[in-house]
Structures are given as C-alpha cells and as structure tokens.
Sequence to fold (122 residues):
Amino acid sequence: MARNKLLCIGLILLFALSCFAETKEVKFVGEWRIVKSIIPKLPIRAWIEDNNKDLLLEFSSNLGSIEIIVTNSTGDIIHKQSVDTKITSSTIISLNEEVKQGDILFITDKMNIISGNLLPTN
Fold:
C-alpha cells in the first residue's frame, strides 16, 4: 500500500514538473478570418520548447486542414506538415535541428496565413 502511494506521488511529480518546462510563445502577424467567430484573437497559439527543437501548437477552433511551414533565414523550407484540426486540437512538431535567429513559422489554410519569428529579437 505504501509502495503504491509512493508510486502515485512520483507520477504526479513527474507530470507536474513537465508542465512547468519553459516555453517561448511565438507572436503571430496576420489575420485569420473565421466566419462564425466573434472572438478577435487568433485561433492558433504556438510555443517553442526550451530545447529549441519542438514546436507546440494549440488550435482553439476547428480550422479544417492547415499547413505548417518552417523556413530558415534564407527562405528555404526546413519543415512542412499538414494537420487536420478536426481530429486534433493540439500538436507537437519535432524539428531536425534547433531553431535559429531568422527562422519563421507560417500557418495557412489556403485562404488565411499567419507568420511568426521563432526566435524574435528583443
């Protein structure tokens, strides 16, 4: 019984500590028009994990199929992926290498497009 309690406490601590991992929010530029929404904020939020390789995306609305594109400072595509927001309300994208200054995240549904610097200058 005591062993089970210790195991449960250990699992709770493991999940709690992972929730406090440092992330950097990506600030987007552009508009995303949704016909049925009266909320002025963007229906997409994005963060970079502290390892500078993982992107976390959260979708507050069903946007259908969207395309996520990451480009480097010279405009070359370093990652491209489609996500169906009908199926998932969030996704994690693991990049092959750490993001660098000048890398840009683009999100589009062919009608709307928003972009954000992955490592903004302060």
Helices lie at 2-19.
